[in-house]
From TrEMBL:
Domain of life the protein comes from: Bacteria
GO biological process terms, semicolon-separated: intermembrane phospholipid transfer
Protein name according to UniProt: MlaA family lipoprotein
Range of residues in the leader sequence: 1-30
GO annotations of cellular component type: membrane
UniProt organism field: Vibrio gelatinilyticus
Length: 278
C-alpha cells in the first residue's frame, strides 16, 4: 500500500494543485515562508475557456462525472477549508525555514532514482544523467540530501518523471478521470506509478514513512497555491476548469507532442495563470 502512497506526490487535496506545474516545470525552489515554487500550466486558453463554460458537454475522460462532482463538493467545500488548508498553512508558517528546506531537499532526493530510470525510458538521456548526478552528490556530500549540493554545483533540478508519464509518452491513454474523496484527482494511467516504488531508496520506506513523505510534500504544495484560489472562485465551473488543467498537466508530464501552438493563446494563458513565484 505504501507504494501507491509514495507515487502520489501531491497533497490530500490536489485539486487546487492542478493549477500549477509544481513538478512539471520546476527549478530548485527558493526557500521562503510560504513554500512557494515556480509554476506553469500547459493547457491552452481555448480549453480553459471551455472549462469555464457552465453545463459543458460531458468530457470523454470523465465517464463518472456525477460521482466526481459530488466528491469535488466534499473536498472543495468541506475538507480543504476546514482541514487541509489551515494545517498546511500552519506547517509552512510556523516551521523554521532552514528545517523546511532541509526536509524538502531530503524528500525530493528520494525521487531522483526513479526519475532517472523513467527519463531514460523516455529517451531523455541528458536529463537522466542529471538525476543520477544529483542523487549521488546530494546523498553523499549533501548529507543524505538535506543539502542541495548538486544545485550549487550547477546541476539543474529537474522535474520528477513517474512511470505513468513514460507510458503516456509512448501512447498509453490517460484513462478515466476520477475525483477521490479526501485525495483529489487522478487518472487511471497513474496507477502504473506503483512501479516507481520498487526502486531504492523509496522501496525501503515503511507505510508510515511513505505517508509522512506524502503529507509533508502535500502541505508544502497546498500552501503555495493559496494565491491561485481566486482563479477557482471566479470560475463559473471550478470543477470543469480543474479537470481540464489537470488532464493537460498529464500530457505535459508525459511530453506528449501537442498541436501547433498559438502564440496569442499561450500569452492569454500566461496572463490567466500568472503567479509571482521566484
Amino acid at each position: 500500500m505504501h507504494l501507491a502512497l509514495y507515487g502520489r506526490n501531491r497533497s490530500i487535496f490536489t485539486l487546487l494543485i492542478s493549477f500549477v506545474f509544481v513538478t512539471g516545470c520546476s527549478s530548485a525552489p527558493a526557500d521562503n515562508p510560504s513554500g512557494e515554487e515556480p509554476s506553469r500550466n500547459s493547457a491552452s486558453s481555448s480549453e480553459v475557456a471551455q472549462a469555464n463554460t457552465p453545463q459543458a458537454e460531458s468530457h470523454p475522460n470523465d465517464p463518472f462525472e456525477s460521482f466526481n462532482r459530488a466528491m469535488w463538493t466534499l473536498n472543495y467545500d468541506y475538507l480543504d477549508p476546514y482541514l487541509v488548508r489551515p494545517v498546511s498553512l500552519a506547517y509552512v508558517n510556523y516551521t523554521p525555514d532552514p528545517l523546511r528546506l532541509g526536509v524538502r531537499n531530503f524528500l525530493a532526493n528520494l525521487d531522483e532514482p526513479f526519475s532517472m530510470v523513467n527519463n531514460a525510458v523516455m529517451g531523455n538521456g541528458g536529463v537522466a544523467l542529471d538525476h543520477f548526478n544529483r542523487f549521488w552528490l546530494n546523498s553523499t556530500l549533501g548529507l543524505l540530501g538535506f543539502i542541495d549540493i548538486a544545485t550549487y554545483a550547477g546541476i539543474e533540478k529537474r522535474s520528477k518523471k513517474e512511470f505513468g508519464d513514460a507510458l503516456g509518452h509512448y501512447g498509453t491513454g490517460k484513462g478515466a478521470y476520477i475525483m477521490l474523496p479526501a485525495y483529489g484527482p487522478i487518472v487511471v494511467r497513474e496507477g502504473a506509478d506503483f512501479v516507481d516504488g520498487l526502486y531504492p531508496p523509496i522501496s525501503y520506506l515503511s507505510f508510515w514513512a511513505s505517508f509522512g513523505k506524502w503529507a509533508l510534500e502535500g502541505m508544502e504544495k497546498r500552501a503555495l497555491v493559496v494565491p491561485q484560489e481566486v482563479t477557482l472562485e471566479n470560475s463559473p465551473d471550478p470543477y470543469a476548469l480543474t479537470r481540464e488543467v489537470y488532464l493537460q498537466r498529464q500530457d505535459y508530464n508525459a511530453e506528449v507532442a501537442s498541436e501547433e501552438i498559438d502564440a496569442d493563446e499561450e500569452a492569454y494563458l500566461d496572463e490567466y495563470l500568472e503567479e509571482g513565484f521566484d
